[in-house]
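STRUCTURE:
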């Protein structure tokens, strides 16, 4: 019986209709409709179904096949026909993309708890939806990315109230999605909420996920890089110092356990935003104590390190 249970998902996967290449607008619409049906019937849908059609919808996003452009010497009627057909495709694309974003966001948060009510059976769907939103970020205009980034932030905050266990790799992917979207609101939110010393397990998991994602942001303004380095060094120097003490004091041991979990990624954050600072021996600094000494030489907000390069017009 146990073996049969293991085989059932495999057999079901084999029966899934593999989505066709979704560049075709008609097929893309069918794939999106199927995904929307899965969302409505989540009790009867296995994760592999969601993922197959999520991938198909992602492939079609912004990627409908456009009509072939006529030659330069084509007749006026042919050019008008092309313009008319292109306009139809662009409208269909815009309508599809809007509905697709809505469906992807629903997949980002969809839940179906197991009998124990502690595990979300659709968490792989959440992870894939988060990855897709991050991948699509590169194709979006800044205003659109701002809006998507705000929604992802809201969903991460909502997970704090989740009644089921939240996987660490889901949190890491959601934070990484914010980095891929690369909007100032995403990084500023991380800085405001994830430079702290809270040591509950769920707090540490989120903290590490945020620190991993911070260093994936691009073209961060000098003012924000300055604030990140200052806050990280100020917040974690004393933690590192206490963690290095040799004592059986429970409070110090708790600090050591906390620092052991976040140290690697916290150090990387300061290295990244500080421009890989080096010590007197030209070695890249890898301790908060070392960063403290370095900070004394660059802590002036007007220091050259914190100036942004001017882009020539």
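SEQUENCE:
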């Amino acid at each position: 019986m146990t073996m049969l249970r293991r085989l059932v998902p495999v057999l079901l996967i084999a029966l899934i209709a593999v989505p066709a290449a979704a560049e075709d607008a008609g097929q893309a619409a069918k794939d999106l409709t199927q995904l929307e049906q899965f969302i409505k019937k989540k009790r009867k849908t296995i994760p592999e179904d969601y993922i197959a059609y999520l991938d198909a919808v992602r492939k079609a996003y912004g990627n409908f096949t456009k009509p072939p452009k006529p030659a330069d010497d084509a007749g006026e009627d042919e050019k008008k026909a092309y313009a008319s057909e292109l306009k139809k495709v662009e409208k269909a694309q815009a309508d599809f993309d809007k509905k697709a974003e809505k469906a992807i966001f629903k997949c980002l948060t969809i839940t179906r708890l197991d009998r124990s009510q502690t595990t979300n059976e659709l968490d792989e769907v959440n992870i894939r939806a988060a990855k897709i939103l991050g991948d699509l970020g590169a194709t979006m205009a800044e205003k659109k990315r701002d809006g998507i980034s705000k929604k992802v932030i809201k969903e991460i905050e909502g997970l704090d109230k989740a009644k089921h266990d939240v996987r660490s790799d889901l949190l890491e992917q959601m934070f990484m999605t914010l980095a891929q979207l690369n909007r100032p609101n995403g990084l500023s939110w991380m800085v405001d909420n994830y430079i702290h010393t809270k040591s509950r397990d769920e707090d540490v998991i989120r903290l590490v996920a945020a620190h991993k994602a911070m260093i994936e942001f691009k073209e961060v303004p000098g003012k924000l890089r300055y604030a990140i380095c200052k806050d990280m060094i100020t917040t974690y120097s004393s933690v590192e110092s206490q963690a290095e003490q040799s004592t059986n004091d429970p409070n110090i041991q708790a600090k050591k356990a906390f620092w052991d979990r976040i140290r690697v990624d916290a150090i990387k954050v300061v290295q990244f935003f500080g421009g890989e600072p080096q010590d007197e021996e030209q070695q890249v600094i890898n301790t908060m104590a070392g960063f403290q000494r370095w900070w004394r030489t660059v802590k002036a907000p007007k220091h050259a390190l914190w100036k942004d390069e001017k882009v020539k017009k």
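REMARK: The longest helix spans residues 76-109.
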